[in-house]
Write a structure and sequence with these properties.
The complex is a heterotrimer of chains A (293), B (528) and C (317). Chain A is mainly alpha-helical and 293 residues long. Chain A has twelve helices and no strands. Chain A is elongated, with a radius of gyration of 22 Å. In chain B, 29% of the residues lie in helices and 21% in strands. The chains are: A mainly alpha (293), B alpha+beta (528), C mainly alpha (317).
């Protein structure tokens, strides 16, 4: 975040571009706020043991559904646990699922999409059909089915979310590869007899990176919400591990007695996914000047 | 689905429940009832097939109550009384022949006559139909005779005292021969004898029955029709009752009971069940249910001390308070206090309704196992199961036993339990009137529900003896001895007996809840 | 044109066929023996075997598949555990979800398109920022949570609307709408956010296009330019977006119906999963997949009618 030393940037065109991008980014207050909030959630998730005043398994059976107090700033839940601590710990599940599911989807989608778009022909057609089949199943049904088959857990929910997000990314990667293939520098490399692997890794992949980064910042909040949905349905994180989705599911039985229990975790999900969306929007504007804005 | 307790999901045949407060809601004066109107009942689950041959759900029995009468029925005090039969069966001295006289002038709801031939046809169907769930309930019946139109004779292969009780449930429902021979699927258009007859069913939504023109006692019937609405979400059932959309709410969830009690337009009825909720401990289920049993070698299977410590760490009172809002009945035995068998069979045994952390810690130490770990399998991902798992986990942590909770959908959990792929499995049983039905299947070596894989020659000897004994006193003694062994070895740890609550609008009268927990609405009506 | 349609339809058929195999195998990959679910408390091995036999679960998988697929082609999806026709159950449940989807799309489109147009026309002004921010909020809101909040506010606190449940329009139109308002808002918010963004960006492109400039140059009032020229073109994009959002809409319907206890198609799916009802689950997922493919085929066709260039390249933009 600090300003760079100017001597290097004059010589290095990449660093120069980076500096321009950073300036453009910093001129967008919403994007900066998004970055700061997202980082706050990430830091809270990592430092949960130090940030949260209580551990996840501190039950107080004599203080069930307690209101906010100096002891428990957000009160306690139906088992007498500190709600604030659970929200802090719950950030771990959300961030983990959001980031890992997106990485997984990328790892699957990018090579497949590039191959389809670069080689075209029958391999493209076959991949297109398979993607169609995957897309023919509503995302949540795929995720519910996978979580049911693999058994409910954060890891399996992450896998389900990753697979669910892959088809759309395959299409994006394919489209990019299709377009890049027609670029002069790629044609030149082909004419020079460079190997396919070299072309894909040196020329195609790096040039679609900015699109992929933007896609990732869109996919992360989607996966965060997806994790909450799966956990809400009992197919994600398993108690007693806290997760915002699980907290909402538990709160549903107490809507008339303690509606606040349904408010806090939702606010956390909302803020977390909003921050990534703001960040994503900012990055899109910065990295992809083609977008009309 | 979520929220539906698996205990009920399991509820099958038999007289599931016994009353504590055989609540009779509403005054019983017929003068106050007006004729006509549609009563809407909000059911907690969706009934399965409406064919008594294959039906297994508890809620299905509620629907059958209005449209499929049985040879025998229960009175408010749970005594067996004749319904389609004219009198109690005459039993031969060797207890192998039952002669049943039938009520005369009865018609099925398609207008055909009800007679002995129809009874024989139905019972034969129950005994031979592929996939019949009734078969095991009445399997000692070797053959059925119909010497004349109003007499049925049952020949048994062995004495079987629960037979009359079985004929007071689905195995005693008689199906119309015309409907059976029509070639259609009986479950899609069931025809029996009853005050109401089947009209329509929309899966997942409702079942409608309308007043029958053929019923033999039409004067008792006041309503035009009854709609059973399937409302699996407990909060929305309560809201619907308060809004007047439904008049009867099946099983109110614990968090809603206080709300309903303070609602002036409804009354709350309750029924303590003879079922139980417990923890099955895998001791010898190494190769799967009914395969040769040998100790699985897990921490809790190896050490009897650890099992006792596990039990003593549980504070049943707190579990009831935190998980169920204090509405169930905490206990330590497979037989409920409402059962006449309870006192004689549990006399002298200690039940820890509160935890004994100190002793539990000593026992963990005495077990010689350092850092014992137990995997707890829950059959359901609903919030109630989640609370139960976490509370048990926290209580065991207090005595140094680490519990890993593993909650899956019910069938998957059951698969695991049957395969022996678990340490501790939280499971419910709907309960049976006879103690044998609550004990034998679970702990006898040949028990078909023995997921614990528990095998004890002495216990087998006692339980088999109790099956053959005819006097209550002898059976009391034998079951008490059996309980002592179970209590010491703990292949199962019993936690509580479920208590069911029902909400009933004060606009209707004559909706009865007996101890079996079924909603009897067939003779109810709206007040004037 | 005919050849293009045939190719598209052929591809759709292949997708449906592959989906049916995925459905069939996927359902069987679910842990949990359906015989156990069917047997209830009775777990006698003999009873289990009888149940497996009567449901054909003891036959080889390919045989089971062919039998099921053969019947499915003729519209017979078999009997579920309640002994009710799966096809009939699905047919009774789908209209409920369709009503929900219709109301959500209506709500989502009206809000999304109007906000999108305003944002584009008043680009960079306060109303644009407000609309863009709302769209972002709409995208970031977990819809099921919005549902819970609405229940707390409008049902529990204010008693304005019923919290959960469903009444058919046929039985009681007003009550039906009362029950549908909150679910439609919950499901429509996400859609309106996506549509707002899409409308805004395609409107911005249109507003800068030559024909719109020409129209302006001719001295037509701005409102006419916007509605008659720019908006009409943008609506094509909007139609496509709604088509593409169908999958998200079905996913959204599952969780929305779960929260508001609406006995629609989405809830039926979850019921089938939880009850391990093979026949029901197979039918439900197959119908969902087929419906999705058919709608996309229709979108392709409509699109190609509107924009003939696509037929040449064979791929929609």
């Amino acid at each position: 975040m600090s300003y760079v030393d100017t001597t290097a940037t004059v010589i290095n065109p990449r660093a120069r571009r980076r500096r321009i991008l950073r300036r453009r980014f910093l001129r967008r207050p919403l994007a900066v706020i998004g970055l700061v909030v997202a980082l706050t959630f990430i830091v809270a998730a990592i430092l949960a043991p130090w940030v949260a005043p209580y551990t996840v398994q501190q039950y107080d059976y004599n203080a069930l559904l307690a209101h906010s107090s100096s002891k428990h700033i957000l009160g306690t839940d139906e088992l007498g646990r500190d709600v604030f601590s659970r929200i802090v710990w719950g950030a771990r599940a959300s961030i983990e699922a959001g980031v890992l599911a997106t990485l997984l989807a990328m790892a699957v989608a990018v090579p497949v999409g590039i191959v389809a778009g670069y080689y075209r022909g029958w391999i493209d057609a076959a991949i297109a059909r398979l993607t169609d089949v995957l897309l023919a199943f509503p995302f949540l049904i795929v995720a519910v089915g996978l979580a049911a088959i693999l058994g409910p857990s954060l890891t399996n929910a992450t896998i389900a979310l990753g697979i669910g997000a892959a088809p759309a990314l395959i299409r994006v990667a394919r489209g990019e590869a299709l377009a890049l293939r027609e670029e002069d520098y790629v044609r030149a490399a082909i004419a020079n007899g460079a190997s396919d692997v070299r072309i894909l890794v040196r020329h195609v992949l790096p040039n679609m990176l900015s699109t992929l980064i933007v896609q990732a910042t869109v996919a992360i909040p989607a996966a965060i919400i997806g994790e909450a949905v799966l956990s809400f349905l009992g197919l994600g994180v398993q108690p007693p591990t806290p997760s915002w989705g699980v907290m909402l599911a538990d709160a549903q039985s107490y809507l008339s007695q303690a509606p606040r229990l349904a408010v806090y975790p939702g606010v956390a999900i909302f803020l977390c996914s909003l921050s990534f969306n703001l960040l994503g929007d900012g990055l899109r504007d910065v990295l992809d000047p083609r977008t009309t804005r | 689905m979520k929220g539906s307790s698996r205990f009920v999901l399991l509820a099958v045949a038999a007289l599931a429940l016994v009353a504590l407060s055989a609540a009779v809601a509403g005054a019983r004066s017929t003068a106050n009832i007006r004729n006509g109107g549609t009563l809407t009942v909000g059911l907690a689950e969706e009934p399965d097939a409406l064919d008594p041959t294959i039906a297994r759900t508890f809620v299905g029995r509620i629907v059958f109550m209005s449209m499929c009468e049985k040879l025998y029925d229960l009175d408010p005090h749970l005594n067996i009384v004749p319904q389609l039969a004219a009198a109690m069966p005459q039993v031969s001295k060797d207890k192998l022949t039952y002669t049943i006289k039938l009520r005369k002038g009865v018609k099925f709801n398609d207008g055909t006559a009800f007679d002995a031939a129809a009874v024989k046809q139905t019972l034969d169907r129950y005994l031979t139909f592929t996939g019949s769930v009734r078969k095991s309930e009445i399997s000692p019946i070797a053959s059925v005779d119909a010497p004349n139109a109003t007499t049925v004779v049952l020949h048994l292969s062995a004495p079987y005292s629960p037979l009359t009780a079985q004929l007071a449930d689905r195995a005693g429902m008689i199906l119309s021969p015309k409907a059976l021979s029509s070639g259609g699927n009986f479950a899609q258009n069931p025809v029996c004898v009853g005050p109401f007859m089947f009209k329509d069913r929309v899966a997942g939504d409702h079942i409608t029955v309308v007043r029958s023109p053929y019923y033999y006692n039409k004067a008792k019937v006041h309503l035009d029709s009854i709609v059973y609405r399937i409302m699996t979400d407990p909060s929305s059932r309560t809201q619907a009752l308060r809004a007047g959309d439904i008049q009867v709410e099946d099983r109110v969830q614990s968090t809603d009971v206080p709300t309903l009690k303070s609602t002036s337009s409804v009354s709350v009825a309750k029924a303590v069940t003879i079922g139980y909720q417990g923890l099955t401990i895998n001791i010898g289920n190494k190769n799967g249910l009914l395969k040769p049993y040998s100790n699985v070698g897990s921490d809790i299977a190896r050490s009897q001390y650890l099992r006792t410590a596990f039990d003593l760490a549980l504070d049943r009172t707190t579990i009831n308070k935190v998980v169920f809002g204090g509405l169930n009945q905490p206990d330590c035995y497979p037989i409920a206090p409402v059962s006449p068998w309870y006192k004689p069979t549990t006399k002298g045994l200690a039940c820890n309704l509160h935890a004994n952390v100190k002793v539990a810690k000593q026992l963990v130490k005495a077990s010689g196992i350092s850092n014992p770990t137990v995997n707890l399998t829950l059959g359901g991902t609903d919030p109630v199961n989640a609370r139960l798992g976490q509370v048990i986990q926290s209580m065991e942590a207090a005595v140094g036993i680490k519990v890993n909770v593993n909650a899956t959908e019910f069938t998957t959990a059951l698969n695991r339990a049957d395969a022996g792929n678990f340490d501790v499995f939280a499971v419910g049983w709907s309960g049976r009137v006879d103690p044998d039905g609550n004990i034998y299947g679970f702990v006898a070596t040949k028990g078909t529900l023995n997921d614990s894989g528990y095998s004890d020659a002495k216990l087998d000897y006692i339980l088999n003896g109790a099956r053959k004994s005819l006097t209550t006193k002898a059976r009391d003694t034998l079951y008490r001895a059996a309980m002592q062994i179970i209590h010491r070895q703990r292949p199962l740890i019993y936690l509580y007996h479920p208590v069911n609550y029902y909400g009933i609008s004060k606009k209707v009268t004559g909706v009865d809840i007996y101890g079996d927990g079924l909603i009897r609405a067939q003779f109810a009506g709206f007040t004037k | 044109m005919g050849g293009f349609l045939l190719r598209k339809a052929g591809a759709a058929l292949v997708v449906v066929f592959l989906s049916s195999i995925v459905v069939f195998v996927g359902v069987r990959a679910l842990p949990g023996d359906p015989a156990l679910a069917l047997g209830g408390e009775n777990r006698d091995p003999a009873v289990m075997a009888a149940i497996r036999h009567s449901y054909g679960l003891d036959r080889p998988l390919p045989v089971q598949y062919l039998k099921w697929a053969g019947k499915a082609v003729r519209g017979d999806l078999g009997l579920d555990a309640r002994q009710l026709s799966v096809a009939h159950t699905i047919v009774t449940r789908i209209p409920i979800t369709l009503e929900l989807a219709f109301l959500s799309i209506l709500l989502g489109s009206v809000i999304g398109v109007v906000a999108g147009v305003i944002a584009a026309v008043r680009r960079g002004k306060a109303s644009d920022h407000t609309a863009t921010t709302f769209a972002l909020v709409g995208l970031s809101l977990p819809h099921f949570w919005l549902g819970l909040l609405m229940i707390i506010l409008f049902a529990v606190d204010l008693h304005w609307l019923p919290a959960t449940g469903y009444v058919s329009f046929h039985a009681h139109p007003l009550q039906n709408l009362e029950h549908m308002v909150m679910p439609a808002i919950v499901l429509g918010t996400g859609l309106s956010a996506v549509l707002m963004r899409q409308t805004r960006s395609s409107m911005l492109t249109s507003l800068n296009a030559d024909y719109v400039r020409t129209a302006r140059a001719k001295g037509l009032p701005e409102i006419v330019v916007v509605t008659k020229h720019a908006l009409r073109n943008s609506l094509i994009t909007v139609t496509t977006v709604v088509g593409l959002q169908l999958g998200a809409l079905i996913s959204g319907a599952v969780i929305t119906e779960q929260i508001f206890v609406i006995p629609g198609f989405g809830r039926l799916t979850l019921e089938a999963v939880n009850q391990r009802d093979y026949t029901l689950l197979q039918g439900v997922v197959l119908v969902a997949a087929t419906g999705y493919v058919v709608v996309n085929l229709l979108v392709d066709v409509v699109y190609s009618l509107l924009n003939p260039r696509i037929r040449v390249s064979g791929k929609p933009a």
